[in-house]
């Protein structure tokens, strides 16, 4: 807690209580599980009412071998809803954009074809409706343009918001951890697009991380949620046990100062 002239103020990120409201804004189905699933489960297990807003249905994803048949967007939407339930999420909102893909010209109607102010307006309406205590996003430091776009829109949505703005928190992957991941991936998946990225800029600078959550207690929820995304290859498959556990039992977060937010 922090002290004010009116007394201590509860830290709404670390001191989660029943009835708190969280809004999680992500770009694709599976971001909520492969990305910030442990933080979501951690909040839900403590009684928070969690809403996941997913910008796309993941149409541009690459189906994993043996993935379910059918339209990929429909398949992935179903996976999202089942995974969210596993994490303890009470509500899922689809924002209606198409998946932009990793690179190339963004297709018409895709998330990155929409301006940041447009997407910010959509998120701002949700914030005003739900009045969340915390708005959680991925920080986009993995390099995916859709992740970056949602993060930029979240910051823009809260700019200048009068009173009652949520605390904006970015889920991060530390550079030190991603360097270990990239090294192992060179032998596991030598064709992945992430090898084109500069390792020095991959992930978040470790010094920027403000909070580290011990999420070992909700590992079973996260594992169950990730297993629902059968159409997609897990980024943790095939990793050494130590590295896999490093990703899954400690979540790294960064609080973002936005004019009008609250601590």
Give a structural overview.
Pfam families: PIG-L. This is PIG-L deacetylase family protein. Keywords: Hydrolase, Zinc. This protein is an alpha/beta fold. It has one domain: LmbE-like (Rossmann fold, 3-Layer(aba) Sandwich), CATH 3.40.50.10320. Helices cover 35% and strands 19% of the residues. A seven-stranded mixed beta sheet has the order 5-4-3-6-7-9-8, sandwiched between helices. Helix 3 packs antiparallel against helix 7. It is globular. The termini are close together. The model has no long low-confidence stretch (mean pLDDT 91).
* The CATH topology: Rossmann fold
**CATH class categorisation:** Alpha Beta
**Number of discrete domains:** 1
Average residue pLDDT: 91
CATH superfamily: LmbE-like
Strands of the biggest beta sheet: in what spatial order? 5-4-3-6-7-9-8
* Strand-pairing-aware structural class: alpha/beta
Note the gap between the termini. Answer: 10 Å
Global geometry: globular
Q: What portion of the residues fall into strands of 2 or more residues?
A: 15-25%
Helix content: 25-40%
CATH architecture descriptor: 3-Layer(aba) Sandwich
What is the H/E order? EEEHHEHEHEHEHEHHE
Counting DSSP E segments of at least 2 residues, the number of strands comes to 9
Largest sheet: 7 strands, mixed
- In DSSP terms (H or I, runs of 4 or more residues), the helix count works out at 8
* Parts with pLDDT < 50 across at least 5 consecutive residues: none
- Rg value: 18 Å
